[in-house]
Structures are given as C-alpha cells and as structure tokens.
Design goal:
By secondary structure, the chain is α+β, with helices and mostly antiparallel strands. It has a domain of about 160 residues: Protein Transport Mog1p, Chain A (3-Layer(aba) Sandwich), CATH 3.40.1000. It is about 35% helix and about 25% strand. The chain is built from 5 helices and 9 strands. A 9-stranded antiparallel beta sheet has the order 1-2-3-4-8-7-6-5-9. A hairpin with a 2-residue loop joins strand 5 and strand 6. The protein starts with 19 loop residues before the first helix and ends in a 26-residue tail after the last helix.
C-alpha cells in the first residue's frame, strides 16, 4: 500500500533537480508521439476502408448499369433479329448463346483482341457473334451474297419484315463504296450493308447497340441519300478495289462493319 503523500515516480527523487524536468518532458513527448502515431494509423486505415468501399460501390453501380443496358438491348433486339436466329438477343451471355446455338465455334481473337463465335447457316450465310469483355453478346453480323437480280426482292423482304428503314446511306471507306439501310429500335439498331460489285452483291446484316451502329456509319464516311438521283449514282466496285476483300465468299469483309 502506497504511503500517503508518496511520489508517483519514486526514482525521480534520487535524480538531480536538473534532470527531472528533462525526463518528465521526454515522457510527455513520447506519449504524445505514440498518441499521434495511433491517430494517423487510424485515419489511414479509415481512409483505406473508405477507398475500398468507394471502389466496390463504383463497381456495383457499373455492374447494375451494365445489366440494365443488357436487359434493354435484349428486349430491343428481339424485334430485329433475323428469323434464322430467332431467340438470340443482343446482351445475352455467351453461355446462353452457346447453349442455344450448338453449332457455333470460337475464332482466335482478331488484331484488336475482339472475340468472335461463328456459325454457318444451311442457306450458305455465315454468322459472326461478337462477344464483349464481360462475356455477353455485343453484336451480330450475317454475311452472305446475292446475284444482282436478287437485290430488289431482298430490299422488299427487309421492308416487309422490319418496316420502312430509318435511314438510307451512301458510304465510302478504303475506296470500297457501300449502300446501307438502317433500322433503330431504341438501344439496338441494325444496318443492311450492300457492297455492289461486277459479280453481284455482298451483304452484311449488322445488328448491335445503336451507339456502335452510329460509329460504324461515321467511320464508313456515310452520308444520307437525299434523292433518287443520288441513289442511281452508286458506283459498282471494281475488282482492283476488292482484291483485299473476300467478296462473294462465305466471309466477305466489308469496310467499317465492326
């Protein structure tokens, strides 16, 4: 039991009066440094947790927005999907697509790193399914060819299936002119690309997000067709211009068709 009036730090009693203030000051400073260190560490931990929570919140917000976009695209694309691909929807997962389309096969990623699945249809057309970084269907291209006399029936069939197009465009990229018809259904749009050459017509039916279609038209140097005279001026592509394009084959490559 401590005696009444005993000094709290007895060892100080044995020190000279000159050292006592220095030792007391050192103890106080040490205590303050320790308290500050704990304070800083706590604030840093709180900041780290806050940053982690903010990143997770941002990821959740982006994930929710992406899922909403996929849902809207699925609904919009069903009205534009070609009959041979009925049931396929832009925004569906790759796993869903592969279960539905059992004859698809994966291509090696292209030079841009884009991932495609491909399928050959019984009518000779080839379908390319582009998969986005989240493993969902981003766009579809249906590649085929027609003789010159088949263009009129094809355009009438498209109008009967999808109604009047929202746009008619003349495009020229890489020296290869194309004629494009576009239809829009909210977040999803479609373009029917006709590349006319001296052996017939190469067709690409391209279905994807409206933003991607707009980008494709811009990259293709497309301008609206304003009258019949402009439509009649569409040039036929020469064989020289097509030497780098597999026109009339199972996989024609059309300019600016992403």
């Amino acid at each position: 039991m401590k005696a009444k009036g005993a000094h709290p730090w007895p060892f100080l009693m044995s020190l000279s009066s000159d050292l006592k203030p220095l030792i007391i000051a050192g103890v106080i400073v040490g205590s303050l440094v320790l308290a500050y260190t704990v304070y800083v560490d706590t604030r840093e931990e709180e900041a780290r947790i806050a940053r982690a929570e903010a990143r997770e919140s941002a990821r959740e917000t982006a994930r929710a927005a992406r899922e909403e976009s996929y849902s809207e695209q699925r609904e919009g694309s069903s009205a534009l999907m070609p009959e041979p691909l009925a049931g396929v929807e832009i925004g569906m997962s790759r796993a869903e697509l592969e279960r539905m389309r059992e004859n698809t096969s994966a291509r090696d990623p292209d030079e841009n790193g884009d991932i495609f699945l491909e399928e050959n249809l019984p009518n000779g057309s080839q379908v390319l399914f582009r998969i986005d970084e989240h493993q969902n269907l981003e766009a579809i291209q249906v590649l085929s060819a027609l003789p010159a006399e088949g263009v009129g029936p094809h355009i009438r069939a498209m109008r009967e299936s999808y109604g009047a197009p929202n746009g008619l465009w003349r495009c020229a990229a890489d020296g290869v002119p194309t004629l494009r018809f576009t239809w829009q259904r909210g977040p999803v749009s479609m373009q029917d690309i006709l590349l006319i050459h001296d052996g017939g017509v190469a067709l690409t039916l391209y279905l994807g997000g409206t933003g991607a279609i707009v980008d494709s038209l811009r990259q293709g140097g497309c301008v609206p067709v304003r009258n019949r005279a402009e439509l009649q001026q569409l040039p036929i592509t020469t064989r020289e211009a097509l030497r780098d394009h597999a026109v009339g084959q199972a996989n024609p490559v059309l300019p600016s068709a992403p």
